[in-house]
Amino acid sequence: GIPQGNVYFLPQKPGFNVPERQMPVMVGSDTSLVTIKLEPESSIEGRIVDNDGEAIEGLSVTCLMQAILNGRKQWQACGMSQTDETGNFHLQSLRPGSYLLATRAQALFPNLNFQNANDSLPQQAYPPHFYPEAADLSSAQPLVVRPGETARADFAIAPVPAFRLSGTASPAQGGI
Prior knowledge:
The chain is mainly beta. It has strands at residues 5-7, 16-17, 25-27, 39-40, 42-49, 60-69, 72-82, 88-94, 97-103, 106-107, 124-126, 129-130, 143-145, 150-152, 155-156, 160-161. A hairpin with a 2-residue loop joins strand 6 (60-69) and strand 7 (72-82). It is elongated.
């Protein structure tokens, strides 16, 4: 029941990825058997703790993969997870390749409501961090994941002093 012409097939199977570069199949009366090889999904799991070995809960972990945009290689977000109460995270459905892991800055008290200016603010925060022990993108080390592999990425983040900033930005643009 497939009309004649070029067709892209997108098979799906839990735990597998379709190859990134797929060629169209010319469907016609003489089309032979079509075989599409799927590759097993990869994943990254790990645990993030502070200097005392205590789990850091609710920390966002972003997975970055290199992509070519406008003729330039750039690191692009390709997955995100959050640490649970034991500091564990799991990034799933990844293609085999090299990845960077990055965390975002977070106050030590994630449930604090910052809308009331009279609230006491945390004195420390977790700074942005790259796996395994890097403060910026240029110092980060890629983590290589093979087909079907679950790579392990455990690391520690030391808190830093937190400060309150206030001010005015003008002129206001786009509702900001």
